[in-house]
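Data deposition worksheet. Section B asks for the primary sequence of the deposited chain exactly as it was used as input, without tags or linkers unless they were present during the calculation. Section C holds the resulting structure in token form. Section D is free text for depositor observations; keep each observation to a single sentence. Incomplete worksheets are returned to the depositor.
Section A, Depositor: J.P.
Section B:
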Amino acid sequence: MSPREAEDTEQRLHAVFLRLGEDLRRTESAVAALVRARPADDGLVHVETVDGPAAQARRILELETGARHTFQAFLTGLNTITPVPQTLASPPGTAPDHEPAPRHGAAPGASYQLLVDRDFLAEPAALTALEERVRRGEQVRVIDSPLLKLAIADGEAAMVQLSPERAVLLRPPLITLVTELFNAAWRHSRPYLREVAELTPVDRQILQLMLSGLTDAATAKQLGTSPRTVQRRLRALMDLAAVTSRLQLGWYAMRNNWM
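Section C:
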């Protein structure tokens, strides 16, 4: 790739990422406005408010454990309902007595789609928890735009967090709105990095965090290393990919099935 071609590629990618982020923000705003609206004129209650972090956490647990076929969720670092160890499953018996019991997940055979944002990846324990999800065969993808807290079970019930203290539980027909939001965000996301022969586990995590926009210092803190080590390993990955910038490295990773 010539310098001119590399520059054009970077400009096109930048424009695409900006457009996708704007589209997602507009869709989220539209959904938030609609779920704040009054119940439908047919007299049926399609929206139920859920107040307080504890009640919201219980509702999400009920949605996940009650899912028979599919469980879809946005996992965000701006989440004020439950920290990462409770947001993602932990082994039975590991939670202290004062914490909620660890969740056991949906019914056997139910498929998971989990979409995480940049802020979530920066949270303590996030990478370890996501690796466990991937090992279980659950689908995990990453998006750079901040997400709202959202969980959908079987396309029949969903919870959307509107503020730290209030969420809404949706049922048909309003469930269609958040399902479309989830699907749109999923299409605009990228896979969580999988294992490939060319990458060590640490290199894969560094690349994952770089692609999500974390600084070298934030990446180093997350991995328990130094910014200089992060920079050195990214330089080695750029040499392996024969590219001269981090944006080109991200493009190479996508084109060559590193993610």
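Section D:
The domain at 194-255 is CATH 1.10.10.10 (Arc Repressor Mutant, subunit A).
Residues 58 and 162 are 16 Å apart (CA to CA).
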